[in-house]
Write a structure and sequence with these properties.
This protein is mainly α. Helix content is 56%, strand content 0%. The protein starts with 13 loop residues before the first helix and ends in a 5-residue tail after the last helix.
């Protein structure tokens, strides 16, 4: 089964971007890859819907 992808644009302050970039660098990832990782982890921690 082929996955479909959706492109999303997020606007943020330079300060916030710099903080994300530093965290991504520590994890040896690009900023977009790090954001995807954060979102996956967040969604996994959500309680299941009833």
């Amino acid at each position: 089964m082929e996955q479909s992808y959706k492109t999303v644009s997020v606007r943020m302050s330079q300060e916030f971007y710099t903080a994300l970039k530093d965290l991504a660098d520590r994890d040896c990832r690009s900023v977009p890859s790090y954001i995807r990782k954060l979102l996956r982890e967040h969604i996994r921690r959500l309680p299941p819907e009833e």
